[in-house]
Known about the structure:
The protein contains two helices and 13 strands, in the order H-E-E-E-E-E-E-E-E-E-E-H-E-E-E. By secondary structure, it is mainly beta.
Amino acid sequence: MKLPLLFPxxxxxxxxxxxxxxxxxxxxxxxxRVAGLTVAKSAEGRTRVLAENSPLRQGDTVxxxxxxxxxxxxxxxxxxxxxxxxxxxxxxxxxxxxxPELDKVELELTQGGFSSTAGALAKxxxxxxxxxxxxxxxxxxxxxxxxLRQP
Length: 151
């Protein structure tokens, strides 16, 4: 291969490697407290251990371990405390203070439970939040407490 042909290919590869981290999913919240082991698996399949101040990204699946609680705060000020052995998928969290017409939250709780406090999005866009569970869908803007455990 001639050197002049190799240079553009190397430059393209270098650009791809430098820009790849920028292609990560949108940050939709932050872990504000954690007690025990909490992990997030990205939509691309990368797993990371979460600690205080860890970012939460759209598409993450957040899992709490046994005897673990995690407090999450989302971009609109909503908070959620995950119970031990919970699994929550952050399917979509779209909030822009200047564009209420784009408000949309889609979460999926497949096991465990949570308690939550509504943020700005839920207060202004009454039906923009949907939480899917094996027991059915929850929709609305109220503060919630949900548990999938049997009493």
